[in-house]
Design a protein that fits this description.
The structure holds two protein chains of two kinds.
Chain A: E1 3-12, E2 15-25, E3 30-34, H1 41-49, E4 56-61, E5 64-65, H2 71-74, E6 76-79, H3 91-100, H4 110-123, H5 139-152, E7 157-161, H6 169-186, E8 189-194, H7 197-203, E9 206-211, E10 214-219, H8 221-226, H9 231-236, E11 241-248, E12 251-254, E13 257-262, E14 269-275, E15 280-283, E16 290-300, E17 303-310, E18 315-322, E19 332-337, E20 340-344
Parallel strand pairs in A: 3-8, 3-9, 6-7, 7-8
Antiparallel strand pairs in A: 1-2, 1-4, 4-5, 9-10, 11-12, 11-14, 12-13, 14-20, 15-19, 16-17, 16-19, 17-18
Helix pairs in contact in A: 3-4, 3-5, 4-5
Chain B: H1 21-48, H2 52-59, H3 62-95, H4 101-107, H5 110-113, H6 116-127, H7 132-137, H8 148-172, H9 176-184, H10 189-218, H11 223-227, H12 237-246, H13 250-282
Helix pairs in contact in B: 1-13, 3-8, 3-10, 6-8, 8-10, 9-10, 10-13, 12-13
Classes of the chains: A alpha+beta, B mainly alpha.
């Protein structure tokens, strides 16, 4: 089912949590809402679910205006960060709940509900745990049950609010791969919220980067990482370093020296240069480069991260060097960013 | 209230490395012995001196049986009424924010603080045939004061805070997300309350019920004013005990007391077993 969010605004007691947000989600797509806390990502998810009502704007499921419908009638599957399982019910009763509360002919017979529950338990790889209570399960198992419960009602959209947020790193990675598999197998349109960029980039077909109640950028992992369209996205996704620079006649200057980068289309004036710490070219001499004094050097897994102080104002930037690279021993390092981006100073 | 049965078996479970188990358990046992066990065993001692035939004669006396039936019956009904309305009051206090909420919250505790005799007199004045409320009920053929119905009303008044105060904290802990999850799964408001919220509250409600019930069985001060105290009709067991004492009939008084004690202990024990069972299930 396609989902279209059209010019939605949400205020909580006059405080705007979302400003005029629009988003098209294709049928069968796996979408991540990514942003720091307070960016409005969970609010957007809850608006799609119907757990909040928009102050303005509409949400369409297909061609239907879902914003007029109650939560119960929207038929969405929602998975909460802290599972929200019914702790007085067995695993099988939890999963069957959505079918049991139906009325009249749409409610399947008890036997059918039981069969569906154990089918879904197979899907989430928890076969044989029908009779357990949620208290007897581990965090990862509970979240699987919660997902099975959400899928039992054959939802039009599956919504997950930081589904792996409460789990430890190992289980998170495992469940991430597993969620991708389930999505590919069932084809539900799925939206999940996360503040973990690795999770978003790895799992989602498209990532929606949000900040301060606005959508900053929507795109595939490649789009978002390689061509960020705002300083926020550049800084938020992946590692980044930035330096205040000046643009004059299409040339970039750091303090009083050109650094050998051309920006023919940039307008003259103050700007900020963004680049990735690992994407730098080390230079020997320095005519047209960025040079700095090594202030600190840390070993991070397979690389060495070097912090440089640049120029009279001692701007600090980070670059990454291969372990054992001779430059790491020196007290002065000169480099030029490989791929970079310029944003006019605010 | 009695303590919950020990964790499976009779073995002492090794507590944490933090010291204090021996001291605190010793103190608890000594304290409970002094405060509860010695007076109660004295009671059983005195009634045992009575001899089996005499004891049986007193126990099966129609006046005794009626008094016990009235005491336990009215306490049960009052506790049941309190479960319904006390849960409702707790719900309103927990869920809604309205002007005067704190005053209402404080008001719930008044039956705790008020001398029960004052409550009894006030209720009698209201419900007597010429009282404010009694006057309105009279034409309907409903007589409250000086009947078992009056006893129920006094016990409802006395028992209300027990239910509210046991249910309230558990209700505050209910995760809003659980309700939201049920709603997204298609459950109506009514289904959410009956199938999701209520089962979670059941242990607390049972506790509140047993407290209100136990309090109602032993209540004396407020009831004797409103009950009318007609033997066989509206005479409660605690009053019968006092009457026997005033007749210097100590064996009869202790016998009735011992029966009350045994019945109360049995009922509280059952409630406790239900509690542990449900706790084991829901974790």
């Amino acid at each position: 089912m396609e989902v279209r969010v059209a010019n939605v605004r949400k205020e909580f007691e006059r405080f705007p949590a979302l400003h005029d947000v629009s988003l098209d989600i294709k049928s069968g797509e796996l979408i991540a809402l990514l942003g720091p806390s307070g960016s409005g990502k969970t609010t957007l998810l809850r608006l799609i679910a119907g757990l909040e009502r928009p102050t303005r704007g509409k949400i369409f499921f297909g061609d239907e205006d879902a914003s007029q419908k109650s939560i119960q009638d929207r038929n969405v599957g929602f998975v909460f960060q802290h599972y929200a399982l019914f702790r007085h019910m067995t695993v099988a009763d939890n999963i069957g709940f959505g079918l049991k509360v139906r009325h009249g002919p749409s409610r399947p017979p008890a036997q059918e509900i039981r069969r569906r529950a154990s089918e879904l338990l197979d899907l989430v790889q928890l076969s044989g745990l029908e009779k357990r209570y949620p208290a007897q399960l581990s965090g990862g198992q509970r979240q699987r049950v919660a997902l099975a419960r959400a899928m039992a009602i054959e939802p039009k959209v599956l919504l997950l609010d930081e589904p792996f947020g409460a789990l430890d790193a190992q289980v998170r990675r495992e469940l991430r791969r597993w969620l991708r598999e389930i999505h590919d197998a069932t084809g539900h349109t799925t939206v999940f919220v996360t503040h973990d960029q690795e999770e978003a980039l790895e799992l989602a077909d498209r990532v929606v980067v949000m900040s301060q109640g606005r959508i900053e950028q929507v795109g595939t992992a490649d789009d978002i990482y390689d061509t960020p369209n705002s300083p926020f996205v550049y800084g938020f996704i992946g590692e980044s370093s930035s330096l205040p620079v000046k643009v004059e006649n299409g040339e970039i200057w750091l303090a009083d020296r050109p650094i050998g980068l051309q920006a023919p289309h940039a307008s003259s004036g103050d700007a900020t240069l963004y680049f990735r710490p690992h994407d730098v070219e080390l230079l020997d001499g320095c005519s047209g480069c960025i040079a700095g004094t090594v202030a600190a050097s840390r070993r991070v897994a397979g690389t060495r991260r070097v912090e440089l102080e640049i120029g009279g104002e001692r701007q600090r930037v980070e670059i990454e060097l291969p372990v054992g690279h001779p430059a790491a021993q020196k007290s002065r390092v000169a480099f030029r960013p490989g791929r970079w981006k310029l944003f006019p100073a605010a | 209230m009695t303590t919950a049965p020990a964790q499976a078996g009779w073995r002492f479970r090794q507590p944490s490395v933090i010291p204090g188990f021996g001291l605190t358990l010793g103190f608890s046992l000594a304290y409970l012995t002094l405060i509860i066990l010695i007076p109660l065993s004295g009671l059983i001692w005195r009634s045992a001196a009575l001899g089996w035939t005499d004891f049986w004669a007193i126990a099966t006396d129609r006046r005794t049986i009626n008094a016990l039936r009235i005491s336990f019956g009215t306490a049960f009904i009052a506790a049941a009424v309190n479960v319904v309305f006390g849960t409702l009051v707790a719900w309103v206090l927990v869920r809604y924010r309205f002007p005067g909420r704190r005053i209402v919250d404080a008001m719930v505790d008044l039956p705790f603080a008020l001398p029960t005799a004052v409550a009894g007199i006030a209720l009698t004045t209201l419900y007597a045939p010429n009282g404010w409320i009694g006057k309105l009920l009279m034409p309907l053929g409903l007589k409250v004061a000086y009947t078992p119905l009056g006893i129920v009303i006094a016990l409802v008044f006395i028992g209300l805070p027990f239910v509210v105060r046991t249910v309230q904290p558990i209700m505050e802990e209910i995760d809003k997300e659980v309700e939201e999850a049920a709603a997204t799964l298609g459950a109506s408001r009514f289904q959410i309350i009956t199938r999701v919220l209520f089962p979670g509250l059941a242990p607390a409600i049972i506790t509140g019920f047993s407290l209100a019930f136990a309090r109602g069985v032993g209540e004396y001060g407020s009831v004797i004013f409103i009950a009318g105290n007609l033997p066989y009709k509206s005479e409660i067991a605690p009053l019968l005990i006092v009457i026997r004492l005033e007749e210097y009939n100590y064996p009869a008084a202790t016998a009735i007391a011992a029966i009350m004690l045994a019945l109360s202990f049995l009922m509280l024990l059952i409630v406790n077993l239900v509690q542990t069972w449900s706790r084991k299930r829901y974790g």
